[in-house]
Write a structure and sequence with these properties.
Structural class: mainly alpha
Number of strands: 0
Low-confidence stretches: 1-14, 242-253
Helix content: 55-70%
Largest sheet: none
Mean pLDDT: 86
């Protein structure tokens, strides 16, 4: 029984993707994200929401170290996401040894790589952008001398920040890769997979906003990064298939 990894080969044609695939999965989501981001930045939506949360908590981040937001959602969420990744790797190792599970090898390998790529990309960007957290700003009782803009860099804010994109939310949003994993195996399950990833990211992101760790726009761009990385990797995997699952001739309800 073979345990070798799938060999990824690029094709020069676009036959693996049905008409409109990239418009629906890249252009439209990116356009919506840009519109939402512009609204949050120009209309003050980020600050409005953070102000409302801060006021509800009595003018200080009382949930910053709370057992539920810090312990369950933050720490517990990290462990849950890590456990999910280990389960995917374990399932792939099992499928690699079982001939009757061979149809699951590619989706499981894709899912393991895509979740790691999404979370890893967010972590890298966090180390480069130097954007402040709400709890860093004088507006919310932080150490910075002034209430710096939401997108302030280290030079503008006077201190290095590591809050953009949202790192913890990526542990949830990375699982939007379930959408594309479903396309590689059971396309009709794709929306269930997307719902799991989005719901988990929203939960993790909301917990961090309640703690004063992130603005809403930080979570928005975490979702964009995770979705884009998942899409890019999916394109690599699909282009390797001699008979792609995704095609205009797929049964009704299976083509995204």
């Amino acid at each position: 029984m073979s345990t070798s990894l799938p060999v990824l080969r690029f094709r020069d044609d676009a036959s693996a993707f049905p008409p409109g695939f990239f418009s629906r999965h890249l252009l439209v989501p990116l356009a919506l994200a840009l519109l939402c981001s512009a609204a949050l930045r120009q209309a003050g939506g980020d600050l409005w929401l953070a102000d409302a949360i801060f006021d509800l908590e009595g003018g200080r981040w009382i949930l910053r170290e709370h057992w539920f937001t810090s312990g369950v959602i933050h720490q517990g969420g990290k462990w849950a996401s890590a456990l999910g990744a280990l389960l995917v790797l374990g399932a792939y190792a099992f499928a690699a040894r079982r001939h009757d599970w061979r149809h699951l090898r590619q989706p499981l390998l894709y899912l393991a790589l895509a979740t790691a790529l999404g979370a890893g990309s967010v972590s890298l960007l966090k180390s480069l952008t130097h954007v402040a957290c709400p709890w860093d700003l004088a507006r919310y009782g932080g150490p910075q001398a002034t209430a710096a803009p939401v997108y302030a860099t280290r030079e503008a804010a006077g201190a290095a920040g590591h809050c953009f994109p949202a790192g913890h939310a990526s542990a949830g949003y990375a699982w939007v890769a379930l959408y594309f994993a479903a396309l590689l195996w059971r396309p009709r399950w794709r929306w269930h997979g997307l719902a799991i990833g989005v719901a988990t990211g929203l939960l993790f992101g909301a917990g961090q906003q309640l703690r004063g760790a992130h603005f809403l726009s930080h979570d928005l761009w975490t979702l964009v990064v995770c979705w884009t990385m998942s899409l890019a990797l999916y394109c690599v995997f699909v282009r390797d298939q001699p008979h792609p699952v995704m095609s205009p001739a797929s049964p009704p309800g299976t083509t995204p």
